Amino acid sequence: GKKQMDELTYKASSTMMNSAFFGQLIILIVFAPILFLEGVEGKMFRPMAFTFGYAVIGAIILCLTYVPMISSLVMKPSVNKNGWFARFEQALEKLSNKLIGALQRVYNPLLELALKRKLIVISAAVILFLASIFTFSRMGGEFIPQLDEGDIAMQALLRSGSGLSESIEQSKKIETILLQKFPEIETVTARIGVADIPTDPMPMDIADMYIILNKDKDSWVSASSKDELIEEIQTTLNESLVGVNLVFTQPVELRFNELLEGVREDIAVKLYGENLEILSQKVDEMASIIQTVSGVGDVSPERISGLPQMTVRYNRQKVAQYGLNIAKLNDYVSTAFAGGTAGVVFEGERRFDLVVRFDEANRQSIEDLRSMYIDLPSGSQVPIEEIADISYQPGPMQISRDNTFRRTYVGVNARGRDVESVVNDIQQKLDAELELPAGYYIAYGGEFENLQSAKSRLSIVVPIALFLIFILLYFALNSFSQSVMIYLAIPLAAIGGIFFLALRDMSFSISAGVGFIVLFGVAVLNGLVLISRFNSLKEEGVTDLKERILIGTKERLRPILLTAIAAIMGFTPMAFSASAGAEVQRPLATVVIGGLISATLLTLIILPVLYSFVEKRNLKKLKRKSITASVFLLMATGSLFMSGVVQAQPVQTTNLQELSLEQAVKKAMDNYPAIKAAQLEIESQQALRKTAWEIGDTKVFIGKEEVGNGSDGITTKFGVSQEFDLLGIPSRLKLQKENEQLAEQSAELTYVQVELMVKQNWADVFSAKRKYNVLDKLFAQFTDISRAAELRLETEATSRLEYLSTLNQANKIKIQKEQAFRDYLSAVRKLNKWFEGDSLYTVKNVSVEELDEPINFNKDALNNHPYLTMMEQKVEVAEAVVKKDQSQFLPKFSASYGFQEIANQSGFYKYELGVRFPLLFWGNLGKTQ
């Protein structure tokens, strides 16, 4: 009925709650490292972590409330067994059982073989893990997989100092060539200069060109892929253009890299130093070395010199000869080309500077500067070239700094290889072939720097999360060895994730790293479910280790496979997606799918093997006391079953020491932990007696008063204050005294209870022993009777029916004797739990008359029973607590004294006496009630 269904739901929910609740907490902790990601990776993956975390919290609430309730309501036996829904349920259940049965028929032989070949199985798992580590070490790395935006961004780098008109001319020429020779290109747009708010400074000799491609790649004729098309475009433009460098990337990626790192390429090989000439020379050497590295697409050294500048060098003798000075000559040059203030123009109340300079036609070339005339003091004029040498000289194009250090860089775009491998090869080449002066050094930035930053952050947060997972596993299982076993699911899961990345020719990226983080939680959850079932079977009495493993794996095969398959099916569309942004999703999904496959298969094989190994090891480490009892039981039981006819003899007690009833009680009182705990509780309450005399806190302080409005105020250089809760001491003393008496009464009750239980167990052993001895003697007699009956049968003095009846009675006595022996051993084990040490004890043979004690029932004995006395003492404690709470209404006193200084004059002091009492006493009144 409904009550039975409710009880079944409660029992099933309680059984799974421990592993399910801790498993969901583990999932929450697994996503914690993702929340600590910053920058681009944080923006991409933190929403996923929040979504998953909120979903898990919702699942926890549902598991605690909704699922048990709806299960109790909905999951009822079908009333109509012939209805269409009942038949559908039966067909579905039959299909499910067939599938799981087929899997069981394959899985069970494999598991039994693994349990027989433990060392081989564990060695194979270790070899697989080492192979995956080797594969991972050879696997490249990148920050975030490159997204295929579908279009091309190309930077045309003209010669240094090129003007706007030349940049426009070259851009138009490039546009014409591209549109004429490549039908795959729909439009080409060029961008020169910067916006009104220059967040990304760019000189006039660089043009950003955006090449929009036809999205239908089947109609392409010049190339089959974008990389091939880029190579064709580069070859064609290099044949048509002179002095133009080309760098290819993608539109969004170009802006992305530039805004994040200040460079437009994937990798920035930065060179730091002081001298611009050395930096310019070494950056060109670096570019030529980097160009030889495999996987390097575009190499673009930052141009920091080579900008033509009109330089004026004055002939100081001629300047002096004409009566001029350098400052005045500089004003002439500055005003002519940059402009200078010649006066002020007024418009109403507003004023504007009137700035004059040469018109545009007269400030275009160096000849305009050379032909400029300078006024002499005599009133005549002289061209400036008469007193100065004017020529073009190369100057710095730009000076860049990072953290106040001057630097330049070589921009590199990786093509066909991952960023980390390219950087490693570049680093090896530069270390071997580039010589740097003292004080000059290289650093790597761009996407590689983001990758290293994310890796370093995860290398701190992930171990912390893994440690918290281990702590939760320990709380869930209360076993260090089992927690370690389940923890091994993490490297087992990593095996599949690494191999699947390698099979799909993918590099490690932050996306794949997030996939590993997600994977670890699911892998640990499956192991927790399996080990929890093993433990519950052990508690239910399944003592045979192999039977426990086979039953547990059979029951948990379905949920483990369903968990893995559901997650794999959920991530499969991501793994094979070709939509926009799929490049980021594919590594994450690939890692999760591969890891779940390996973790599930290896968990179902490796985990039972490890569990078997650890459990057998724990059995060997049992205390000598348990080992002795087991050996004794085995020897005694074996001697009974191996012998055809057991001779009449008393119980063998050569391995057991005998105790009288008084000795058993005394030994338990001396050694049992509960007795020791009761004694320690009395000592604890006695030690707490001093706390009742606590009068209040002492405070030491300094401070200022009346400070402000230019006043120095009053300075308290040193002060001390003390609280005095004197009126509350009696109630606290009373409460503590009652607590001491309660501890003593509780200890007395513990003594009585332990004594009673020891006596009961002693009596059980005594009774079982006597019963066995009686049956042993009876069996010996029936053995003799059986032999006599056999002789009478041979002499035909009795019938065969009478002989069989006698033999049957002897066998009954034998079975009763064997059961009595097992009962006796069980009683011995129960008695020995009260004693410490490695020795085993049994009861001393005494007469029944010696154990007879008269029982006197009287009113005084009942009134003085320790349990009733303890309950009465609890009432006294409760009344003392009420009085202590009522003492909160009493006033408390305080006093303070301090040395003060006023206007730098010492010798002043302050004191304060006060009384404190509760004005709003509802809180304390509630406690008292």
Q: How would you sum up this structure in a few lines?
A:
With 929 residues, the chain is of the alpha+beta class. It is built from 29 helices and 23 strands. It folds into four domains: 302 residues, Up-down Bundle (Multidrug efflux transporter AcrB transmembrane fold), CATH 1.20.1640.10; 208 residues, Alpha-Beta Plaits, CATH 3.30.70.1320; 67 residues, Multidrug efflux transporter AcrB TolC docking domain, DN and DC subdomains, CATH 3.30.2090.10; 194 residues, Up-down Bundle (Outer membrane efflux proteins (OEP)).
Could you estimate the helical fraction of the residues in percent?
A: 55-70%
What is the alpha-carbon Rg in Å?
A: 46 Å
Quickly give the CATH architecture of the largest domain. Answer: Up-down Bundle
Q: Separation of termini?
A: 44 Å
Beta-strand level of the residues, as a percent range?
A: 15-25%
Instruction: Provide the CATH top-level class of the largest domain.
Output: Mainly Alpha
List the helices and strands and how they pair.
Elements: H1 2-30, H2 32-35, H3 39-64, H4 66-74, H5 84-116, H6 118-137, E1 141-142, E2 152-157, H7 164-181, E3 185-192, E4 206-213, H8 226-240, E5 245-249, H9 251-261, E6 267-272, H10 276-290, E7 296-301, E8 305-314, H11 316-321, H12 326-337, E9 340-347, E10 350-356, H13 366-370, E11 373-375, E12 381-383, E13 388-396, E14 400-402, E15 405-414, H14 419-433, E16 441-446, H15 447-477, H16 480-487, H17 489-503, E17 508-509, H18 510-539, H19 545-575, H20 582-620, H21 624-642, E18 657-659, H22 661-671, H23 673-687, E19 698-705, E20 714-724, H24 729-794, H25 800-832, E21 841-843, H26 848-851, H27 859-863, H28 866-886, E22 892-902, E23 905-916, H29 922-928
Parallel strand pairs: 1-17, 18-21
Antiparallel strand pairs: 2-4, 2-5, 3-4, 6-15, 6-16, 7-15, 8-13, 9-10, 11-12, 14-15, 19-20, 20-22, 22-23
